[in-house]
């Protein structure tokens, strides 16, 4: 076991440092924007034109620089979807509130009135910020967070007290969630955590309502504490697992949270958003290399005033290793195959790497990273190039990481729900790695310190619905991928089945361990895939672009329609062992210890898996065991050394859970409130029924 040790170097996190960084970034954005917009606010670049939210994000930097007329023009050219007499978009509407709060006095009368009208429309129920889907109830928390900003701060701005009251109800609902859980549903997302943090910080900083300020500040502090607990000070990044992550997040390149953390904490965070202006060739950006989008979004995050509690700042600053953080959260229903459920997330941080897992993915798992490794490529991390990651996905029809595409036209916000006609979209100049490699797996993950047991099976929905209303998806391929990005460096040493290999290629026999050294990480993978109905699986080492991956192939061939039963009996997953380079004398010694482990894995009423690792030269004996029904949201049992896995609200090394905001407060019931006549919304026809209305 790695010895615990501390680090005394501190971040440059003074208020002056934060102000200098945010002003420097936004000043550079103003200069860069001259190549994107003319003085009339028209888009002149050959990259994908900015949506309205991007115009609002960037306008804050323009107003801050005194470019008021130009900012007015940029804002005025934006359009928001109209539903009858209401203009509404969850982003446009509520980003307008933040812009008005900061720069209202600099705006022309026409622009100010236009934004105020947009904010006022947001007080509506359908569509509007009071829609029933904009609650904190197990889904994308960033959206109800933005709605709450619009209701509370917009309501105070425009003297609409009933909007404020609805926003307060939202905050009380989120507080209740954080009393019974360690974190939010959209947990630890490098893209979306920043939006929720910014929303809560705006309310905490600007609300006149005392209860709103108190609740928002406590929620913001809880989010900061959970993020800080999973932040690796030596790497300067958020470790996993991630509820929702895009390509840039899975390779630890420029994300919303990396930029927000840089604004708050300084150059120990990787990468710096200032890299966007130099744009190193190897830096991957969200929205397929869309620099204007990323700059504008990061300007919005830079505009916030954040309230990081001392306990979080201490964890951002340094940790004693190994460091452990565990939390529970709750997830909403995402269809018949992903019912509402509880989730347990765990992160173990070591000096040279971190391992994070979630017991179940968020939603249907398409954007989730339920197994995620972050590691050092070099002894001293000085840039994003010195950081590596490992993660897993289940892909269909030959999808692999590393494909490059050009940005294409998309429907205006809201229009995609109404215009179902297919047409060839316009293609723009900006290109980059595709934004997200979707995963099609139901996943259960069990973690014991630096060991992960990952069990999967394909989405049963690929086989259509039980009632036949949804047809099966034709499949030409079904693969599980264990992915090692190589943007900053390749796999340096490889042992397969006890025999060294010179190249990352070739087939692997079932039962063999794949053991590699990449940077300062030693990693070993033992695929556990087999099927009852399709036939034997193939395991191969393959590459595409800046990625190496282990392909576990369930099916490859002519388009085929699988039944739900066939898919439920495709058993995937793997065992993964991890170590820092300094722990073992050689990769061979690490591999030898891994190969000594034994497995039992079979299906008979449930899938039953046992992984038994004897004591080695570095690590103690370990026994992991699980019994899981295909398609189930929970397990019959999951044990570590014979003991059921605990599910505490939160366990963070060095921090007592009762000291977290809200946890030790007296019970506070949410006052009765049921404002909806029904649960119909503009962009979805979900079944509902109402029995009682707080009667």
Can you give keywords for this protein?
695 residues, alpha+beta, Glycosyltransferase, 2 domains, 10-stranded antiparallel beta sheet, 8-stranded antiparallel beta sheet, 29 strands, 28% helix, globular, disordered N terminus, Alginate lyase domain-containing protein
Verbal overview:
- The structure is a single chain.
- The strands form six sheets. A ten-stranded antiparallel beta sheet has the order 17-21-22-14-9-8-7-6-5-29.
- The protein has two domains: 15-313, Glycosyltransferase (Alpha/alpha barrel); 320-402 and 437-658, no CATH class.
- The longest helix has 20 residues, at 161-180.
- The N and C termini lie far apart (57 Å).
- α1 (15-33) packs across α11 (256-265), α4 packs across α6 and α11 crosses α14.
- The radius of gyration is 25 Å and the shape is globular.
- The model is unreliable at 1-12 and 416-420 (pLDDT under 50).
- The protein is built from 17 helices and 29 strands.
- It is of the alpha+beta class and 695 residues long.
- This is Alginate lyase domain-containing protein.
Rg measurement, Å: 25 Å
| Average of the residue pLDDT scores | 94
Largest sheet: 10 strands, antiparallel
Number of helical segments? 17
How many discrete domains? 2
* Assembly of the depicted chains: single chain
Major sheet strand order: 17-21-22-14-9-8-7-6-5-29
Give a concise summary.
By secondary structure, the protein is of the alpha+beta class. Helices cover 28% and strands 25% of the residues.
